[in-house]
Amino acid sequence: MGGRGSDYSWPNPLAAQSTATAPMPTDFRAAHTTDADWQTAVDHCLEQLGELPAGANLGFLYVTDAFADSLEDILSRFVAATGIVAWTGSVGIGILGGNREYHERPAISVMIGVFAPDSFRILPTLGAEVDALPESQRAWIRQTGASFAVVHGDPGNDRMPQLVEELADALGGFLVGGITSSRGARRQIAGDVTHGGLSGVVFSPAVGVTTALTQGCRPFGKVHEITECRRNIAIRLDGRPALEVFNEEVGEALAGEPSRMAGYIFAALPIRGSDTGDYLVRNLLGVDAGNKMIAIGEHLTTGDGLQFCRRDRKSAREDLERMLHDLLARTGKRARGALYYSCLGRGPHVFGEDSAEVRMVQEALGDVPLVGFFCNGEISHRRLYGYTGVLTLFT
């Protein structure tokens, strides 16, 4: 399975502590609820959070798009009630908290944590160029060696893939996060409610983190060379008509019924230079039977590789289990808190109802505060993915 090239651990002197003897950290709190009225939902979350730990100084807040227009008011209530002024988060068509997923209903998921003084900075909205980052923030990044960030992006910004790469390069490090999903206002939180670009929070090495990516697809066949293409159209693979190659690999049954392939067969584009088989999964947009060409949801380049892959419940569960096992083995201790960003195309569409996906995550982690949302694209390292899950542990 691909995705291991996006694993990341920040050195932490406590990482060797045994999970068998480590007490459950108590410096993170999380809450989640659903209610038609946002004020009632906030009150329920505050009741669940209870008395906050001393030194709580950063909050993560996710709301479903039913509450998108009330996000300013929701954030203001949390700031006033907790005294925490630094917040980050986003809107999702679906959100998650603990072992619950909330789809197609108004809901809030919130997590607060205690971080070392001066160990993070809220990242203001970067709409066009990463060079717009304030010099004061650049100076803090240089001084602390900060190279990890949790970010949220606006799907309406055409430069989002470039902004993700540029910010990762500017930090010389690693990003995790997701693209806002909403049928209405596309809003993020970066101190205040914002939109239009890439925003979030940057952490110094004083904050221990471990993160990993699960793809949920199973490649099949060989990696083909794109020998002729035009924009996102694969014309020839290995010197042969692309559709002929595709039909041979998917088999006569599927090739004869293109409608059966939707949501099941995808293109996998190997990432050049990856030593772990990492790849990007992209939709097959259509075929031109007459000219034997395939349209793919990504700009193609002659000489690059292209493989086909299947996405089904079995493959997704197996790769999520693999990722969780590997991540916990690398962590070496109980997590303080967790963030999970999954694709809108996953969740109940792949894993089934009753919050099956996040239940797998929470069962593996134990009683760890966990929040996140279902994204319009997932961010790991320096790339924008699709159909993936990105899990980050604060250690």
Question: What features would you describe in this structure?
Answer:
It is a single chain. It contains eight helices and 27 strands. With 395 residues, the protein is an alpha+beta fold. Strands 15, 16, 17, 18, 19, 20, 21 and 22 form an eight-stranded antiparallel β-sheet that branches. It has a seven-stranded mixed β-sheet with strand order 1-14-27-23-24-5-6, covered by helices on one side. Strands 2-7-3-4-11-12 form a six-stranded mixed β-sheet, with helices on one face. Strand 20 and strand 21 (293-296) form a beta hairpin. The radius of gyration is 21 Å and the shape is globular.
Concise synopsis of the structure shown:
This protein is of the alpha+beta class and 395 residues long.
What are the segments in which pLDDT stays under 50 over at least 5 consecutive residues? 1-5, 12-23
Helix content: 10-25%
- Which percent band covers the strand fraction? 35-45%
Give average pLDDT, whole number.
Answer: 89
Features:
single chain; 395 residues; alpha+beta; 8-stranded antiparallel β-sheet; 22% helix; 37% strand; globular; disordered N terminus
Furnish the topology, listing elements before pairings.
Elements: E1 8-9, E2 28-34, H1 38-49, E3 56-64, H2 71-82, E4 87-92, E5 94-97, E6 100-103, E7 107-114, E8 120-126, H3 135-144, E9 148-153, H4 160-171, E10 174-179, E11 188-190, E12 192-194, E13 198-203, E14 209-214, E15 218-230, E16 233-237, E17 240-241, H5 242-250, H6 252-255, E18 265-270, E19 279-282, E20 284-288, E21 293-296, E22 305-310, H7 313-331, E23 337-343, H8 356-365, E24 370-375, E25 378-381, E26 383-385, E27 389-394
Parallel strand pairs: 3-4, 9-10, 23-24
Antiparallel strand pairs: 1-14, 2-7, 3-7, 4-11, 5-6, 5-24, 8-13, 9-13, 10-25, 11-12, 14-27, 15-16, 15-22, 16-17, 16-21, 18-19, 18-22, 20-21, 23-27, 25-26
